[in-house]
Amino acid sequence: MSTIEGFPYQIGRELGEGAFASVRACFDDKARVFAVKLVNKNYVAQKMNMSVWTRRITSEIQLHKICNNHKNIIHFYASGDSPTWRWIVLEYAQGGDLFDKIEPDVGVDEDVAQFYFAQLMDGIKFMHSKGVAHRDLKPENLLLDFNGNLKISDFGFAALFSYKGKTRLLNSAVGSPPYAAPEILGQYDGAKVDVWSCGIILFALLLGTTPWDAAYDNSEEYVFFRDCNERPSYHPWNQLSPGAYSLIMGMLRHNPQKRYSVQRVLQHPWLHTNISFRSSSGACSDPIALASRLMLKLRIDLNVSAIPTETTKTRIEDNAATSMTQPPARIEDSLLDSRNEYSTLSQPVMDSTVFTATNIDTDPALSQFCDTTEFLESLTQKAKRFEDICPPERMTRFYSRSSETVILQHLYDCMRKLAVSVTSKKETKQTVLYIRLHDKRKCQLQGEITIQSIAQGLKLINFNKRFGDPLEWRKFFKIVASSMGKSIVLTY
């Protein structure tokens, strides 16, 4: 795809893809970079009712426009269509995914969480002031700009709950199960379901996981939470500081009427006890220090395999088989799964042309395999920008001097032990393994593992998430990389 009739931008590389859509970089005549969401209307027409789809994408565009011009919301620039394509031009999130840079089951330091949570709530406050509820707040939809500032993205399930002083209850069951409020299956206050989702996001920022797979009675973890009067003292809740615990409890009250409002969240003392990285405008005051703190937590131990035992294998769909022939079909949406038929959920993906044999020793991805902080400290001393330490490309990658045959043997062995569905395809410049599984929260993960030769005897192995929670995708990457060990994974 090089040109589209009537599209006033030059189309660049692919940044991501969805069921019916592709997100690509694009450039105007001043060489400014944007992200464009391209939807193939012919393909949509084969899969769903076009009038329903037209209403949904029109609503997405209109509500995103309403929420424009806030520093913590991805900017909407333009939209249009051709006979084949519908396109939406958006701000390019140059800093990549926030949660790609957060270690599963570890999280970030509290002052880093305070910084990002304050920016998230500032964006939500603005959105709600326009009468718009996002309804799909989750890690996939939190991106970063070139200085590491948070940007809320994807208005595919946004809804208008207030207009000219009049409010209404919403009733569409949308969202992602681990982040969705318990009342989402009935009528609900759009602002309060966003507050709930933000509470789960704060929990994930601090602890690197979510508290339950869904806030329903069939979730054992959520039932435990309710049984202790929503005041849990067990692990991992007891790892939270008193201030963070107090705030999260107020945001996760089962009764929406007792749940904190956005205003009360913003007034909570925890948000004001530490203002590290925050300028007077709320933007990042020290991008290099912030990037260094994010990267400091990313660690993969190559000395110990993280492959689970037989009793703790990754959960996948029933009767999944391992095939080595054709790419898998798209997994159908569940009732409360936010994969939008016309959207993709994140922007930056790996651009393998960035890394060559001559510059991999400065690739920040190597720092996650180091036993000491020496490599990261060296990067920090030389860094001039946020991306010099936290690149926009996803951190789920490693290098190897092993042969492709050996690498594939180890990858297939890992997939077999994890009971992960995998198919493969040999392309001109790379070999691709198509991956699909369910994470521990029973949510879908899909992506690809690519093996590409970037120099004689040097391979780049990239784990590119196409759909799913970035924390869970990183956890999957971490398990596989640790099982490969130092005999396969190149270290600094």
TrEMBL record:
Keywords: ATP-binding, Kinase, Nucleotide-binding, Serine/threonine-protein kinase, Transferase. Belongs to the protein kinase superfamily. The keyword Transferase applies. InterPro entries: Kinase-like_dom_sf, Prot_kinase_dom, Protein_kinase_ATP_BS, Ser/Thr_kinase_AS. GO terms for cellular component: chromatin; cytoplasm; nucleus; site of double-strand break. Residues 9-271 form the Protein kinase domain. The keyword Cell division does not apply. PANTHER family: CALCIUM/CALMODULIN-DEPENDENT PROTEIN KINASE KINASE-RELATED, SERINE_THREONINE-PROTEIN KINASE CHK1. Gene3D superfamilies: Kinase associated domain 1, KA1, Transferase(Phosphotransferase) domain 1. Pfam families: Pkinase (PF00069). One of its GO terms (molecular function) is protein serine/threonine kinase activity. Coiled coil: none annotated. Transmembrane segments: none annotated. This is non-specific serine/threonine protein kinase. ATP binds at K37. Signal peptide: none annotated.
